[in-house]
Specification:
about 250 residues; mainly alpha; Helix-turn-helix transcriptional regulator; HTH_TetR; DNA-binding transcription factor activity
Length: about 250
């Protein structure tokens, strides 16, 4: 199975809209083109929203320099596109800043990470760096949840209600995966590829709208406890993945 990877890109209100690439070279070009097209659509929508407009499909198509048909290929409904772009405007800057701040703080331990890596074992500094980044990401998302969670519920409902297509690509969650991969980047060279991809998938299950909704609706947790539960789950996944890597070496 081809592993899906996301890279961080973009600027302005849509900064961080991610580009999908794959590990299989022949598919990489097509995947990148799909990601560029989707990014252009969301970016154009975000720019129009930031200007105070409530754009329709025609306005978005013109701003993104794509056809109406192309927009509907990526977003079956206008509501889904507007929600996606709005959520990006609400969360992107804060989450990006939180991960960056955690990265700067953790960079002070880079020399220790290099020394530990030379021993052939996953470095404590690298794991601590990744944990700090993931924790910062989760807390930034938790802080934004008061305003964004209702929109997140709506986006999930729209996605679930849309009939699935046959294309083997994610239907949403691109920002989340980009954030997770960026936060875990210190471990990319410490873990086998399959373990890294599994860790990304595992953290995707405990971070984001779905996790917050479960913790609120099924567990009745308040916002602070929801954030702590997600952060604990993510740390546990990182720890167990590093232990598995050590057993392999």
């Amino acid at each position: 199975m081809t592993a899906l990877r996301y890279t961080h890109a973009g600027s302005g209100p849509s900064r961080g809209i991610e580009e999908l690439v794959t590990d299989t070279a022949p598919e990489a070009g097509r995947a990148r083109q799909r990601r560029r097209t989707r990014a252009a659509i969301v970016s154009a929508t975000a720019e129009l929203l930031a200007q105070g407009q409530t754009p329709g499909v025609n306005e978005i198509a013109e701003a993104a320099d794509v056809s109406r048909r192309t927009i509907y290929q990526y977003f079956p409904t206008l509501d889904q596109l507007l929600l996606d772009a709005t959520l990006g405007l609400l969360t992107q800057t804060d989450v990006d800043a939180a991960i960056e701040a955690a990265s700067r703080t953790a960079s002070k331990t880079s020399s220790a990470a290099a020394s530990a890596a030379a021993s052939g074992a996953p470095s404590r500094a690298a794991s601590g760096d990744a944990s700090a980044r993931v924790d910062a990401m989760i807390r930034a998302l938790g802080d934004a949840a008061t305003s964004s969670l209702p929109l997140g519920r709506s986006l999930i409902r729209l996605t679930v209600d849309t009939p699935p297509d046959d294309a083997p690509h994610p239907r949403r969650g691109y920002r989340r995966i980009a954030w997770i991969e960026r936060a875990l980047d210190p471990l990319r060279t410490e873990l086998d590829d399959d373990l890294f991809e599994r860790l990304v998938s595992g953290i995707a299950m405990v971070v984001g709208w779905e996790a917050l909704i479960v913790l609120q609706d099924l567990r009745g947790l308040d916002p602070d406890d929801r954030t702590e539960a997600s952060a604990w789950a993510a740390r546990s996944l990182i720890h167990s993945t590093l232990e598995e890597q050590q057993r392999r070496t």
